[in-house]
Design goal:
With 246 residues, the protein is of the alpha/beta class. It is built from four helices and eight strands. The chain folds into two domains: 8-37 and 202-245; 65-184, no CATH class. It has helices at residues 8-47, 53-57, 166-173, 202-245, and strands at 51-52, 66-73, 79-86, 89-100, 106-115, 132-139, 159-161, 177-184. The longest helix is centred in the C-terminal third of the chain and has 44 residues, at 202-245. It starts with 7 loop residues before the first helix and ends with a helix.
Length: 246
């Protein structure tokens, strides 16, 4: 160890950066494990038999559960979620209140994505006027909650938002409603209803973890190289000076 002389500055830099890089790598691994568990839960619940809307009200863990609904859409209070893309095209997702006839409960149903290529004209959509049966599933955002970015009590509808909290909407409309968004299955009442469960899959997190660990190894390797290189240079310099004195 007497011949290992990395210097004070490199030692301080490694002491600060190395734990950070390693912790970021393990954090990405944990996020990947969380996403894997979430996708497994999603697959299991999507394969199960759908529940009735009455059961939905009493479910303590409704995430990704399939539900059978029968009722009517409220076409007046439509919400358009902006900045949604499909296949590289810009568009919006259409969410509308839906009142279930069996329970009287209001639910915010996402009817799918529709293109919006020209911002000078509003997105075009239609709403079924008759009562209809609907297959849907409960969407709970992983690791985040929706926030309403516009005042739902204003008179201008439909509203263009970037995110929405159903609970806030029901309070503003003075209605008894379900606290989570429901995403409709493909059918006559939907637009493009291909739903990604997570924006980033577990494999992406693992790839990022590998990158962080590789950076940590490279940093530590550089630190060792500088320490030995500096020690070697110092040793050679000392030997040269001793020769001159002789």
């Amino acid at each position: 160890m007497k011949r290992f002389r990395p210097g004070i500055v490199p030692s301080l830099a490694v002491a600060l950066l190395l734990p950070l890089l390693v912790s970021l790598g393990f954090w990405q691994l944990s996020r990947g494990a969380e996403k894997s568990a979430l996708l497994q839960s999603y697959a299991e619940r999507r394969a199960a038999e759908p529940m009735a809307s009455v059961e939905l009200q009493h479910s303590t863990d409704p995430a990704f559960r399939r539900v059978l609904l029968h009722g009517r859409f409220d076409a007046v209070h439509s919400l358009l979620l902006d900045n949604r893309q499909r296949g590289g095209k810009v568009g919006v997702e259409l969410l509308q209140p839906f009142q279930d006839q069996a329970t009287g409960l209001w639910l915010l149903v996402n009817r799918g994505w529709l293109p919006w290529p020209d911002r000078r004209t509003p997105p075009q959509f239609t709403t079924p006027t008759d009562a209809l049966s609907l297959d849907a599933w409960v969407y709970v955002a992983p690791g985040a909650t929706f926030q309403l970015h516009a005042d739902p009590s204003t008179s201008t509808w439909p509203k263009l938002l970037t995110a929405v909290d159903p609970g806030t909407l029901w309070t503003a409309l003075e209605r008894k409603g379900f606290a989570y968004e429901l995403r409709a299955e493909p059918g006559p009442a939907t637009y493009q209803a291909d739903w990604p469960v997570v924006a980033m899959g577990p494999e992406k997190h693992i790839a990022y973890a590998v990158q962080w660990f590789a950076m940590a190894i490279a940093l530590f390797g550089l630190y060792l190289y500088l320490g030995w290189h500096n020690a070697k240079e110092k040793h050679h310099g000392s030997g040269h000076e001793s020769t001159q004195h002789v």
